Amino acid sequence: MKIFCKLILIVCFINSIVSQAQNYPQNYFRNPLNISMQLAANFGAVRSNHFHMGLDLRTNSQENLSVLAAADGYVSRIKVERYGFGNAVYITHPNGYTTVYAHLNKYYDKLDEYVKERQYKDEKWEQDITFQPGQFPVTKGQLIALSGNTGGSAGPHLHFEIRDTKTEECLNPLLFGFAIPDNVSPIISGLYWYDRRFSTYEPGANGIAVKKTGNIYSADIVRVNSPVISFAIKAVDKANQGFNLGIYQAELLMDGKLIYGFSIDKVSYDDTRFENGCIDYTKFSRDKMSIQHLSTLPGMKLQNYSTPNLTGIITLQDEEIHNIEIVLKDVKGNTSRLTTKVQLSGAANKAIPTGNNVLQPNEAKTITTQNAEINFSKSAVYDAVNFNANEKQDADPNVISSLINLHNPYVPVHDNYTVKIKPNRKLSQEEKDKVVLLFDYGSDTDAVKGKWNGDKAEGQFNRLGTVKLVLDNSLPSVSSGWKDGALVNGASLRLKGTTKIGDIISFRAELDGKWLRFSRVKNDFVYIFDEKCPKGSGSHTLKVTTINTAGNTNTQTFTFQR
């Protein structure tokens, strides 16, 4: 009876996916560009700490291509931000969907003027503005913006999303019938198995060579020394266009029976970080390899992703040879299969870590060292972690605490955890106000202003690495590309921002005493000359005030001729 019920659930899950795809309106939305749709990335592709939530459309390595409304509707929201989407437009449509267009250079004239007026009114460049249906109606094919490379973009392209207006879930745009030719099956390049008696993180992935004969992939028999294992796959989809796209659908079968499956049809931004529990995070962050688990990690709670009630965890109760088949599909139905066999061969004894420093999924935990306290929520980890926390001294005179080592950067944390650190000497109140927690992830750093809780400074982070308290009395600054008092004939003013520790968290520019709109491009600040400073307007004084993470403020004055 249990097997029958499980089969019914699987069939319902698959039928639900098929039904959703069939129910999405086909050919309702048009290509948002005037050139053919070519993908640089698809929905569900693996990114740092998130799934890719839309399509990245190529713009022939150019900026300022016309971006068009995919269907009738109205502009319901715009965003202007340093990272993320950069400049973005949201259009709400009468059929219950919202389309999103990101990394734009410029909005269409009427909307662009409105945003500019709002920025000057608020004296704030970053914006997140919502609109009523009658303010900015648009028709299908209408120009809404020019494409660009703003925000968290590594090159010119258009990021395009389709969302459910009510739930704000991002939906796979390729299920909406866009005419993108694709007759290329997913390409498999690696197979991995994991000892699941404790955790996928320890000892980690065991690689198996994959061979291809014709259209069939295979691997030699996988002999394992653990009775509890799982598999993962390294694969990409090419979709006729050469870019490495993400895998849409996967199934794992043992002895002809489905034991796991996933399909990436929809994901909310609230849940997209669960991606870290769907991949081998260690391989991704350390080795830049995208390997997706064909099993469920106990702390992975992503909805509508994997087949209900099937974990993909294999318990081998004998030393017989078992058949394994992995089936990968793209949205068009192009299919690849990998076949192999698995055999338990002399199970090795394994000591399962226990003690106060083991983090378990779905359990909150506090770990302490001599001078630090680390508080994890019950959602912190996807799989068990034998957590290593220790301290050592740092010779830098500006460092006022031990260096706290928090395991390593190659194990993911799902949400923010709190670190509290005791300084190594008594601080004045003035000094306390200049303390930041400086975090080193190995590949980059982050800094947050310390919040004092008793005798400890605390901060929140969502990655692991090393952290210490630093007394920061340094000033942020900007540097200009012209000599003071010089005649500036270019199209813009560009200021380069620098900080010793942390970031410039506040920037304000005033031209002859009035706020001037500078956009922020990574660490640069850019003003495009307009009616606020026309050619031939003579001498000008530009006053710039910056504030860094520690709260240190610096005011600088520049002069130029126009």
From TrEMBL:
Keywords: Signal. Pfam families: Peptidase_M23. InterPro entries: Cell_wall_metabolism_enzyme (IPR050570), Dup_hybrid_motif (IPR011055), M23ase_b-sheet_dom (IPR016047). Transmembrane segments: none annotated. Gene3D superfamilies: Glucose Permease (Domain IIA) (2.70.70.10). GO terms for molecular function: metalloendopeptidase activity. It comes from the Bacteria. Residues 1-21 form the signal peptide. Residues 51-119, 131-166 form the M23ase beta-sheet core domain. This is M23 family metallopeptidase.
